[in-house]
Amino acid sequence: MIRRAVTAAVALAAALLVPAPAQAAEPVVRTEAGLVRGETTAEGRQFLGIPYAAPPVGPLRWREPRPVRPWHGVRDARDFGNKCVQGTSWDPGYERPSHTEDCLDLNVYVPERSARRAVLVWFHGGGLTAGAGQDVVPDTFARQTGTVVVTVNYRLGALGFLATTGLDGEAGDRVSGNYGMLDQQAALRWVRANIARFGGDPHRVTIAGESAGGRSVCTQLASPTSKGLFRAGIVQSGAYDDCAARTHGTAVAQGAAFAEKLGCTTVACLRSKPAAELLAAQGEFDWGPVTGGSFLPVQPARAFEAGAAARIPVMNGANLDEGRLFAFASFDAAGGPLTAEQYPSVMSAAFGDDVLARYPLSGQPSPSIGFGTALGDMLFACPALRLNGGLAGRGPVYAYEFADRTSPPFASLRELGTDFDFGATHVNEVQYLFKHFGLTSPLNAEQKVLARQMVQYWGSFVRTGIPRAAGQPAMPDGASGAVLSLRTASAGGNAPSTSVHREHQCDLWDAAGSG
């Protein structure tokens, strides 16, 4: 008995003397501005909150992004940076407003043993007034596709898009109001200068985004000053308003009204206002890019007609039920569903008398969904098809439609606990590609199969400029009018569709848009 106890004690002592396995060293990369320390995860390596431009604060508020100041030592890059100035929302992590202007950071996700891998740069959505690069965590996508993924913060709302005559005088091209878009270009220049040090190929960069991020891609495709910064683009639900920007005159008039609301007549007065006061005043105004300067001389549609982004491959698409999210927000979440009695007057007021005949209540699952169907067709589906035609003359365009009507509501909606039938609504495809708000979505078995197929299509496009997935049909040429309908197997699987123009009543909306 004693001998066994001694033997066990000796064995335990010997075990304690064996050195523990070495922890993986935290990865350190030298950027042009200094060293950054990231971390190794189960998916690869990640570097978070890396500044790509100087903080746009004080005298740099409403100025073009400036180079980041170099630092000494090793900068910690294991936590996300600040979100740009914005209010609260339904989205997880946005329960409090952000009043922080020091926010021009990006995040880099790298598969293990990376060398000269293709790069995806993601611009977040949020209507150009909300959101952050951290809204998606693409580490699994990076590993599965063998790509390096970069997510970007950029200035939003009034701080990103204010135009005034005073600010025009400070702008290099005498047109103010494009600060958020110029931030995106500064991030792309950072990628070009630094991404090889992380294992990426600066000559194989694809820009992508959803909603306002997709609109950003559309705008950057049309911008002469973005030339050479990327080789391909992905527009997800971003063709709304035909990617149109504000005219310079309209933007300056809005800027004057915004300044008047704040009691300001000078740029100095505007710069003296706290971010919280600017945020409180911006709600009633339209914020977005501005035409007329060197960044965006003409509207994107005209730029594409003239050959902008020549030979740059583009993937472009929308979701089958885009408008259901907005119908829910307008009615069900705002006090009560749209009723059958209200439906005719609401539809006529929103869209005109002719539209009601195309979207009779008898053909709709509910009045709210009927309203959402018309809204989605007008704002997203038909503009996406028009953009395919507009882009077709200057390079390859690949068209898709996310059509999984069984998809779970994205994270923000799940937290509301509603039983509203969102179908394949706005934003819902993002969870099939990335961890949305860092969360793993509750996809069922066949949805996980569809997600793997979508990741293959997107990853192939990032690597080669052509979207392919094993055993799946090719994504159609957008010039043909067809799209690849992305669906689960029980709904028929992925298949080309030539009926989308008719299904979304685009003859009606195209005529309204040209009228």
Any overview of this molecule?
The protein has an eleven-stranded mixed beta sheet, with helices on both faces. Strands 1-2-5 form a three-stranded mixed beta sheet, with no helix packed on it. Strands 8-14 form a two-stranded antiparallel ribbon. The chain contains 18 helices and 16 strands. β10, α6 (about 210-220) and β11 (about 230-235) form a beta-alpha-beta unit. The longest helix has 26 residues, at about 365-390. With about 525 residues, it is α/β, with parallel strands linked by helices. Helix content is about 35%, strand content about 15%.
Features:
515 residues, 16 strands, eleven-stranded mixed beta sheet, three-stranded mixed beta sheet, 15% strand, alpha/beta, globular, disordered N terminus
Q: Looking across the biggest beta sheet, what order are the strands in?
A: 3-4-6-9-7-10-11-12-13-15-16
- Portion of residues in beta strands equals 5-15%
The radius of gyration over CA amounts to 25 Å
SSE class: alpha/beta
Q: Please give the share of residues in helix.
A: 25-40%
The count of β-strands is 16
Termini gap:
97 Å
Provide mean pLDDT, rounded: 94
Largest sheet: 11 strands, mixed
Per DSSP, the total helix count is 18
Rough shape? globular
In terms of per-residue confidence, which ranges show pLDDT below 50 for 5 or more consecutive residues?
Answer: 1-23
Short synopsis of the structure:
It is built from 18 helices and 16 strands. With 515 residues, the chain is α/β, with parallel strands linked by helices. Strand 10 (200-210), helix 6 (212-222) and strand 11 (232-236) form a beta-alpha-beta unit.
